[in-house]
């Protein structure tokens, strides 16, 4: 199976699959930073739609941060992985401590990426949520729940690469899922990119500014 050259290449390919949403004034695109932003930038440019960020932070188990015990998202949403929390008997104080730390980082990123701009109005709009890949689907699910309380008309999840199990988890929660490839075994998002170098905060800010300029030119 072919791999994407990089996130911009993946975004251009994804944009073709989302072409029916082009030039619709009610469409807004929200990217999960950082890796989702270069992908979403190409989609926003092709669809002529506004671009912003939907920030999600994984709640990692202290000492084993790669193990997600939950996630938080913009809008005060917290999704917990109750099975893991119960199985490992994670203390409430530990859970609250991890949540507090990640909430501070989420708020820092919102200020850094958006500056003084208000968060976009999504009520009664079609929102396309984009990431560079869906491995477990947990972060995207937190983003979806963060959006639902803002009453969008429709939620579409889009990603260049998605694990089949992530698609199964997300499908009941959204109106549509658009993806490029869904290999089995998935073995991680990075496997499906030739260049999967980390996206910097500076790149995120730059792409958001570029997207806004292009929309109004």
Helices and strands, with pairings:
Elements: H1 7-17, E1 27-31, H2 36-47, E2 51-53, E3 56-61, E4 64-73, E5 77-80, H3 82-87, H4 92-114, E6 126-130, H5 138-148, E7 154-161, H6 164-170, E8 176-181, H7 201-215
Parallel strand pairs: 1-2, 1-6, 6-7, 7-8
Antiparallel strand pairs: 3-4, 4-5
Describe the structure.
The chain has helices at 7-17, 36-47, 82-87, 92-114, 138-148, 164-170, 201-215, and strands at residues 27-31, 51-53, 56-61, 64-73, 77-80, 126-130, 154-161, 176-181. It is of the alpha/beta class. The termini are far apart. The mean pLDDT is 92.
Number of strands: 8
> C-alpha Rg, in Å?
17 Å
What's the pLDDT, averaged over the residues?
92
Fraction of residues in H or I helices: 25-40%
Structural class label: alpha/beta
Oligomeric composition of the shown chains: single chain
* N-end to C-end Cα span: 38 Å
Q: Regions with pLDDT < 50 over 5+ consecutive residues? A: none
Largest sheet: 5 strands, parallel
Q: Give the number of helices.
A: 7
How much of the sequence lies in strands comes to 15-25%
Identify the overall geometry: globular
Q: What is the H-and-E element order?
A: HEHEEEEHHEHEHEH
Biggest β-sheet: strands ordered side by side in the sheet: 2-1-6-7-8
Could you list some keywords that capture this structure?
alpha/beta; three-stranded antiparallel beta sheet; 22% strand
Short précis:
The protein is α/β, with parallel strands linked by helices. It is built from seven helices and eight strands. The strands form two sheets. It has a five-stranded parallel beta sheet, with helices on both faces. The protein has a three-stranded antiparallel beta sheet with strand order 3-4-5.
